[in-house]
């Protein structure tokens, strides 16, 4: 099991997959990792999982039999890089008592049940999610509406500019907050005032900065943004720290480290998210703790 050092009431974040679109592999992709989007967020002991990309398999192995009986997976949207880890999530295989609840906000209130059922079925996949030991539940909502859970936890949501739509999330705990803004393409003009209001003053914004401004003219309309636009939004909205996420699989460690240095020259609390990187925010009255985990080498926030 990976190391966790924060107090039991901290807001904690661990990245299990930071790549966008598809995995990266090879000796030049070690520092920032391979897996597609999956982020573990703990509000105290309460677990939330943001997206179910291939990183979900690593998170599942880490949780193992100690996983909670009820697990909530907040999906940004259903593009393959955000859901392909679902049938490889080990806690789904270990208990018939477990309930795995998915939340989907970009389908006008419809849940992910029907599209996931089409994908995870022969001939595209040998097993249906309904055949796994755990019970899957599918909840639909409209991005922009808050989600309230049965334990009273409330999470804010926001519709993002992405082909077919995507949902951004804002999770708050003990006076701290983290915003998950993936996948998104910036608008013109930028920053978008509604998105800026949604992320205002957050402790950490995880942002789709797949490309650089120099690359963007080739990928306009693909539904992704740049690290420079992430910095612009952060500065306009008082975002305290910025994690660039949904990293392009063609950007190797050397590229990302150079881009990170360039970015930190204009926003010292910004960094490129690394797989397995861990960040903890102690309750607002206490000092922020930032333990970067096994691979991280970024400045304190
Ligand atoms: Zn994506
Ligand atoms: Zn997408």
Automatic annotation (TrEMBL):
<dbReference type="InterPro" id="IPR001279">
    <property type="entry name" value="Metallo-B-lactamas"/>
</dbReference>
<feature type="domain" description="Metallo-beta-lactamase">
    <location>
        <begin position="35"/>
        <end position="222"/>
    </location>
</feature>
<dbReference type="InterPro" id="IPR036866">
    <property type="entry name" value="RibonucZ/Hydroxyglut_hydro"/>
</dbReference>
<protein>
    <submittedName>
        <fullName>MBL fold metallo-hydrolase</fullName>
    </submittedName>
</protein>
<dbReference type="Pfam" id="PF12706">
    <property type="entry name" value="Lactamase_B_2"/>
</dbReference>
